[in-house]
Design brief:
Blueprint: H1 4-9, E1 16-19, E2 29-32, E3 44-48, E4 62-66, E5 75-78, H2 82-98, H3 109-126, H4 133-150, H5 154-168
Antiparallel strand pairs: 1-5, 2-3, 2-4, 3-5
Bound molecules: zinc ion.
């Protein structure tokens, strides 16, 4: 019998693997994002353990079926087109963290990421860059994303941005993320 994950992915390629929260438990349920278009599979699949079933308010969707893929809690498999994944990064952490709004820059992603990176660099300089590990990691990864986009490779930028998203959890005020 094909696995639950296999059925839900419906043979589609993953655009990005994201870690929306860090938890060492194996996921027991899958939350499904609404389909991008009618007749296609869920936009994303968020894997969650029992303690985190109600978490990740930024990822609203139908909670369902038992996960049998043995992926860690917090792993999100995102099947959306690249630009939609970029917008999701902006909505969930980039804009809250940096104040840079893609709409204001006509979704010109180089400008969005470059300006965000400048905000982070300024904050890093103010903080002295000392022991603030997450901000340092964020700056490096954001710099890689800027580089990818400057080379015209939006898709590749999703890899460092996924790291940024995970790191940003340490920098953003907790919104509904229950401690384990
Ligand atoms: Zn968990």
């Amino acid at each position: 019998m094909p696995s639950v994950l296999h059925q839900l992915s419906a043979g589609r390629q993953i655009t990005s693997m994201r870690i929306a929260l860090e938890c060492s438990k194996t996921a027991t349920s899958i939350r499904q994002g609404p389909a991008v278009e009618a007749g296609t599979g869920p936009a994303w699949l968020a894997h969650l353990c029992p303690a985190h079933t109600e978490d990740l308010p930024g990822w609203p969707g139908a909670a369902t079926v038992g996960a049998d893929s043995r992926l860690h809690c917090g792993v999100v498999l995102d099947y959306r087109p690249t630009e939609q994944v970029l917008q999701s990064h902006a909505d969930l952490w980039l804009t809250p963290l940096t104040g840079v709004v893609p709409q204001a820059l006509k979704h010109f992603w180089y400008d969005v990421l470059d300006q965000s990176n400048r905000v982070v660099l300024t904050r890093l300089e103010k903080d002295g860059g000392g022991e603030d590990g997450p901000l340092q990691s964020l700056s490096m990864m954001l710099g890689m994303a800027v580089q990818n986009v400057s080379e015209g490779n939006l898709f590749q930028a999703l890899v460092p941005l996924a790291y940024c998203e995970t790191v940003s959890q340490k920098l953003l005020p907790r919104t509904g993320l229950a401690p384990h």
